[in-house]
């Protein structure tokens, strides 16, 4: 039985979007996963670390899934609802959760960690990462790439540049900070939204896709999108992701 537009909108506009768990979208939206398997690779790197820092951990969902955390594990987060979720997930496993304002400088001493990680950071502070890494330590991150979900952005706000977050720009920034890039991979991945409620939930949660999004502001476009999905099937977009691993050279000065 098809649900009405008003029912879909009311539900999606009131459900909590705290944390970085997208299970609410199960059966309503789908996204291909990068072939490299970030969670598995993260677990392998964490298993070999003594002191690790996860920057912008969200609700701690990814870090909490690591089978074995290093003896010293610290996570940072800025958004209070996510901070509470991360603490609930990670503190029972012996990890420290630190409130940070998502602005440099990182609140840690030079050369404190042999591994720094981040999944989908809003911004990467390469100089700070290089500073807190020990010589021989590595930064390991999966990031949002250029023009990710651009089809959805442009449906609501029209054409935009979207060329930020180029993988090669990340390589150059890492190298400028004194790090050696040892791995860099990029993929585009198919996404499908099966109803307008899934789109609303996604845009409320991933706030940079359509900056300033609200149901009220985009009511006309949302109704048009609902009618399009009803007539033609899922709305299709492409996300982009890149994996980057950069190492601080042995003997590099702090």
From TrEMBL:
It comes from the Bacteria. Pfam families: Methyltransf_11. InterPro entries: 23S_rRNA_MeTrnsfrase_RlmA (IPR052939), Methyltransf_11 (IPR013216), SAM-dependent_MTases_sf (IPR029063). One of its GO terms (biological process) is methylation. Residues 53-139 form the Methyltransferase type domain. The keyword Transferase applies. Coiled coil: none annotated. Keywords: Methyltransferase, Transferase. One of its GO terms (molecular function) is S-adenosylmethionine-dependent methyltransferase activity. This is SAM-dependent methyltransferase. It comes from Nonomuraea aridisoli. The lineage of its organism: Bacteria, Bacillati, Actinomycetota, Actinomycetes, Streptosporangiales.
């Amino acid at each position: 039985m098809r649900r009405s537009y008003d029912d879909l909108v009311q539900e999606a506009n009131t459900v909590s979007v705290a944390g970085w768990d997208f299970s609410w979208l199960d059966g309503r939206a789908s996204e291909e996963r990068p072939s490299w398997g970030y969670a598995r690779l993260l677990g392998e790197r964490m298993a070999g670390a003594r002191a690790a820092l996860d920057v912008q951990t969200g609700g701690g969902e990814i870090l909490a899934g690591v089978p074995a955390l290093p003896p010293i594990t610290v996570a940072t987060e800025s958004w209070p609802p996510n901070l509470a979720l991360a603490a609930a997930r990670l503190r029972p496993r012996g990890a420290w959760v630190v409130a940070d304002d998502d602005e440099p400088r990182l609140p840690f001493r030079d050369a404190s960690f042999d591994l720094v990680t981040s999944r989908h950071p809003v911004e990467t502070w390469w100089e700070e990462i290089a500073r807190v890494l020990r010589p021989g330590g590595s930064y390991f991150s999966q990031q949002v790439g250029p023009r990710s979900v651009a089809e959805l952005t442009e449906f609501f706000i029209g054409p935009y540049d979207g060329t930020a977050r180029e993988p090669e720009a990340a390589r150059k920034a890492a190298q400028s900070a004194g790090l050696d890039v040892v791995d860099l991979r990029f993929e585009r991945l198919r996404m499908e939204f099966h109803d307008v409620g899934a789109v609303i939930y996604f845009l409320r949660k991933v706030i940079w896709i359509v900056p300033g999004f609200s149901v009220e502001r985009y009511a006309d476009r949302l109704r048009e999108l609902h009618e399009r999905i009803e007539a033609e099937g899922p709305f299709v977009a492409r996300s982009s992701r890149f994996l980057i691993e950069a190492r601080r050279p042995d003997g590099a000065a702090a």
